[in-house]
């Protein structure tokens, strides 16, 4: 019998001053048995940093990337099912990213491993045609600190100002400074 996903729930209060997005979201996350707290929290961070201010053009949703190789970690589809924004976390290969760039209006990758510089150096030149791709790096120490906030039921506040992100639980807080690796997008 296959091991099932573990369900996590988060009440997320977002104050993103850089994008003028202020909202509360109730988020349910299905954590794949092979997924770590660190990766799951990066997916939650990706949701918070990319959720649109309203749902007039569709909604940002968690996808099934660990179950289905044709899906990202998150995607924003419009009401015609066209992919507006494809969001991957980790270190996807260049072929996956080029396919995503052809399918979606925008593609974002959030990499969080200490091996990110090696991964990026190996694929950077292969992605020059993907003008709609943006790659971000979260320092490993920051993503590991973020993982320590993971609980089955979470109350999280996320504040973004001048490119710096603070995620807190009320008793613990993590500062995250995403670093953009791409020039285009």
Automatic annotation (TrEMBL):
Coiled coil: none annotated. Gene3D superfamilies: Restriction endonuclease-like alpha-beta roll domain (3.10.640.10). InterPro entries: Restrct_endonuc-II-like (IPR011335), YaeQ (IPR009822), YaeQ_sf (IPR038590). PANTHER family: SUCROSE PHOSPHORYLASE. This is YaeQ family protein.
